[in-house]
Specification:
mainly alpha, 4 helices, 119 residues
């Protein structure tokens, strides 16, 4: 039961991060001066990043017995990169390239989560 809670926390965080980055990218493209939308996106991404961290390290401690492997380190680096994306998205004028970068980071992180333990 504990593993399912960590998985749901982790996936809820992933959904919040990508929802908030979609919101922020749309804001930079269509309503760059919308401050309440920027604050909401920043708040949701922070909560999502925290849930990713909480669920990910909970799974790490229960399922993998704290055995630090290369794919877990790669996921931590991707988590840090996604955290830095918030600043880049808010500073960008047209963030279509950042949209694709966030998408690729998400795909790599999900592939590592699915296939990493078997590699």
């Amino acid at each position: 039961m504990k593993i399912l809670i960590y998985k749901y926390l982790h996936l809820s965080g992933v959904l919040l991060v990508f929802l908030s980055y979609g919101l922020l990218i749309a804001r930079t493209m269509f309503a760059a001066d919308n401050t309440p939308m920027r604050k909401l996106g920043g708040m949701l991404s922070g909560i999502g990043l925290f849930l990713i961290l909480l669920g990910g390290f909970g799974l790490f401690s229960t399922v993998y017995s704290n055995a630090l492997t290369w794919w877990i380190l790669a996921k931590v680096v991707i988590w840090l990169a996604l955290g830095g994306m918030l600043v880049l998205i808010n500073k960008a004028r047209n963030s279509m390239a950042l949209f694709w970068l966030v998408l690729v980071l998400g795909l790599v992180a999900s592939a590592l989560g699915v296939f990493g333990p078997t590699l």
